[in-house]
Amino acid sequence: MVTGIVSEFNPFHRGHTVPIRAARGAVICIMSGNAVQRGDLAIFRKHARAQAAIRCGADLVVELPCPYVLSSAEPFARGAVGILAATGLPDLHLAFGCETADMEQLIAVAQSLNTAETQALISGEMAGGVPYGLACQRGLDQALGEGIGAVLKTPNNLLAIEYLRAIARLDVPVTPLPALRRGVDHHSQTPAGDYASATYLRSLIRDPAEEIAQVWRYMPESAAEIVRTERKQGRGPAGLDQLDAVILSLLRLSVSAPDGGYLDDSEGLSRRIRNMASRAGSVAELVELVKTKRYHRSRIRRLILNMCLRMTPAHRPETPPYIKILAANDTGRGLIRQMTETAAIPVISRPGQVRQLGSRENQIAEMESAVTDLQALCFQGVDQQRGGSEWREMPWFLET
Questions:
Q1: What does DSSP assign to residue 395?
Q2: Rg of the chain over all Cα atoms, to the nearest angstrom
Q3: Which residues pair with 7 in a beta bridge?
Q4: Cα separation of 79 and 302, whole Å?
Q5: Could you give phi then psi for residue 343, rounded to 5 degrees?
Q6: DSSP character string of 56-96
Q7: Residue 273 exposure: Cα atoms within 13 Å on the Cβ side
Q8: Rounded Cα distance, 210 and 218, in Å
Q9: Could you tell me what percent of the chain has a pLDDT over 90?
Q10: How many degrees, rounded to 5, is the angle at CA 122 between CA 301 and CA 108?
Q11: DSSP for 288-318, written as a single string
Q12: Which residue of 1, 13, 41, 53 lies most exposed, with the fewest beta carbons within 10 A?
């Protein structure tokens, strides 16, 4: 049996160990790379975060490519489910946390969202100027009954439903394993016992006025050791707001969209971002200038990164076209060997291997390299800021 867990480990904390320890069989983590779904750069390198996951109980960590990460919940979930199914391993399960114990309700919502009737209701709401998230809630209320749409108000329920939708849409042999989420709320700024949210930990790590020693109590010691090493070597913390001049320059110099337009652009949002970029003095100010009731901050920040990367819909096929290995232990190595025989798509264990694949795979790899180079500009020291590490960094393997 193999259990997949989708996460960003941004950074890895005690709450992340709960689903790993509860998982059945071998554990594969499908992890965001150096960009994260909230529309930001990961606070630490993907190989460091993957190493932390392996040291804390995971067996194998593979990468969710950035075109799926810098997207809404639906493509994010579809990309992760697609990778897990493409491994071809037997008896696949997908574990995920949610805020409701009513699995039947989650399944009913997922099935309804996959129907043309509910999608028509959602489109009707959006035509009246309602934001997408609220339109989905109202559409579900009309389709399934008043109050049902409230299940989408919490982030883990939203992702749980999208995982269920992806499993049905892709028609893959993956069994869902939902579990009530434990610890603190997703964006909580208040710790509870030994648990703290990644949002809270990032705020501590990035604030020079805070005592960094507070962070370690909320991380497993092996993960804390990796973070201390990364900081000591000048590799983090990283974040989009550290690159104000770079991001604003790229946006101001971008006079036209690429062929096919930007990934996940609609209703002239990229044009609004480009226009406001000449007025803003920072990325944070730009987001506030662009923000409306219809567009939340994460969506705007994702599109800002997509514009800087010149990422188009062509960079995001239905599911990822390869599986990239980031880290593994001995059990994970056995899974990799098995996947070379069973996987439906290429398994990449050395950076240069992608060069031997087609243009679609290389385009995605080039996007990944660009994200990695942006993150490097947040680091300290000339050596750490050099580009091209995406093509040099090998997977990390736990020696036993």
A1: P
A2: 20
A3: 31
A4: 16
A5: -65, 145
A6: TT-SEEEEEPHHHHSS-HHHHHHHHHHHHHHT--SSEEEEE
A7: 32
A8: 15
A9: 82
A10: 100
A11: HHH--SSS-HHHHHHHHHHHHHT--GGG--S
A12: 1
Type and span of the H or E element at 396: strand 396-397
User: Quick one: pLDDT at residue 119?
Assistant: 95
Q: Is-cis flag, bond preceding 155, omega within 30?
A: no
pTM: 0.95
User: Which H helix or E strand runs over 177?
Assistant: strand 174-180
Which residue type occupies 383? D
Return all residues near 197 (Cβ < 8 A) that are at least 6 apart. 13, 15, 183, 184, 185, 186, 187, 188, 189
Neighbours of 272 (CB within 10 A): 16
Residue in the block written with tokens 């010149």: 310
Token readout for 24 is 């059945």
Report pLDDT for 185.
60
Place of tokens 């996959």: 114
pLDDT of residue 181: 72
Task: Round to whole Å and give the CA distance between 140 and 349.
Answer: 43
| Phi-psi map region of 183: left, alpha, beta (phi>0 left; psi -120 to 50 alpha) | left
Q: Average pLDDT of the chain?
A: 94
What are the beta bridge partners of residue 93? Answer: 3, 175
Contact 151, 105 (CB under 8 A): yes
Q: Distance between CA 308 and CA 250 in Å, rounded? A: 6
Do the strands 174-180 and 26-32 form a parallel or antiparallel pair, or are they unpaired?
unpaired
